[in-house]
Design a protein that fits this description.
Order of helices and strands: HEEHEH
Keywords: Ribonucleoprotein, Ribosomal protein
Strand order of the largest sheet: 1-2-3
Largest sheet: 3 strands, antiparallel
CATH architecture: Irregular
CATH class: Few Secondary Structures
InterPro entries: Ribosomal_bL35, Ribosomal_bL35-like, Ribosomal_bL35_CS, Ribosomal_bL35_sf
GO biological process, one term: translation
Helix content: 25-40%
Number of domains: 1
Strand content: 5-15%
Family: Belongs to the bacterial ribosomal protein bL35 family.
Protein name: Large ribosomal subunit protein bL35
Length: 65
């Protein structure tokens, strides 16, 4: 039986933590930062978890994670 392929775009965007939650980065932090407030940019720092509603879809993209 051949191995399942991982969606490479998903493997670059998500990291599965040991507890089973999935870590992701924030959107809206890449460009056109001059019109965004300092508060907005500060709150977009760091990582957050994928919501419970989106978790099954993300897990299907990462079969061996």
């Amino acid at each position: 039986m051949p191995k399942m392929k991982t969606k490479k775009s998903a493997s670059k965007r998500f990291v599965v933590r040991p507890g089973g939650t999935v870590k992701r980065g924030h959107a809206f932090k890449r460009h056109i930062l001059t019109k965004k407030t300092t508060k907005t940019k500060r709150q977009l720092r760091g990582a957050t978890s994928v919501s419970a509603a989106d978790l099954p879809a993300v897990k299907s993209l990462l079969p061996y994670a």
